[in-house]
Design a protein that fits this description.
By secondary structure, the protein is an alpha+beta fold. Helices cover 28% and strands 45% of the residues.
Length: 146
């Protein structure tokens, strides 16, 4: 299953990158993140692993481990989902006028072949809505702190 959302941010890409990758602060804008912890000794670059306690339908239900597999600041971040949910998430930051265009894409799967795909397809509209609301929250937070 693939889901994508994007928004315009009122800060330049370098500043947006710095603020978006303040790992623990992501819970302030990500609608489905209950908590985020960095598990590695380093916080930047390929190999960083974070544990994200994720809400499903508003309930903190599972902890997803994500590992940075591509790090190209301030342009691109790719993370592999290493928990129950498998796949990759990608964040792209592109210049847009005086600010940045931030695009968030998730390609996800569950280890249960047919049933997993059906469950994710049913969840897809909600996930898209959560991503859009998260990006709206991020946009507002960056505008308030600018």
């Amino acid at each position: 299953m693939r889901v994508s959302a994007s928004t315009e941010l009122a800060v330049p890409p370098q500043e947006a990158w710095r603020r978006v990758l303040a790992w623990e602060e992501q819970v302030a804008w990500m609608k489905d993140a209950d908590s985020i912890r960095v598990l590695t000794s380093h916080r930047e670059g390929v190999g960083v692993v974070v544990a994200v306690r994720t809400r499903v339908l508003g309930v903190p239900l599972l902890t997803d481990h994500l590992e940075v597999t591509m790090w190209d600041p301030p342009r691109r971040l790719v993370m592999a989902h290493r928990g129950l949910v498998r796949g990759v998430g990608e964040w792209l930051m592109e210049p847009a006028g005086r600010g940045a265009r931030f695009t968030w894409t998730e390609e996800l799967g569950l280890p249960v072949p047919v049933l997993g795909e059906l469950a994710l397809l049913a969840y897809r509209p909600l996930m898209r809505k959560l991503m859009r609301r998260s990006l709206s929250n991020l946009e507002r937070l960056l505008r308030e702190r600018a």
